[in-house]
Amino acid sequence: MLNLDGLIDFANAATADIAKYQVSVVLNADNILAGGQSSVNALNWQSVSYGEAEIDRVPDDKRGIYAFAVCVPSSILPPHGYILYIGIAGRDSARSLRARYKDYLNMRRVIKRDRIARMIGTWHQVLRFFFAPVGEGVSSDDLQRLERQLNTAFMPPFSEGDLEAETKRKRRAFR
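Predicted structure:
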């Protein structure tokens, strides 16, 4: 008699320990290099650990671009990180980075976005919210163009839209 209990236990443990954290990663060097060319001259990126503890460090009076990344600053680990999602605060509005960030702390809102719920639920302990405020001279169109450029450069696994049209079409071929 074939006893599969050991194999089933292994498969379940592997799924819990490995598959839960698996995402498709695209690292296109050409796109990443092109992502550094933008209509915005420079960005001053800052970050906070995901959660409410450092929310006061996120500007409440500035629009901008933001990214969620798996990253743990450490004196032991080498510099590392992976961008999971890129978005903007102030799409056709004056909505601040802090107001947008609060959306990601509101579980009623997050649970309605399956991919974002998975991202936060899985990596919340090592998730950082990176943000770069932009000045009043940056239009909503410029901000949206920047978002598309960065999403096209990095193709974060939890960003679905906001890619250059041709890249978006090619990416769908692999989903």
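Summary: The mean pLDDT is 90.
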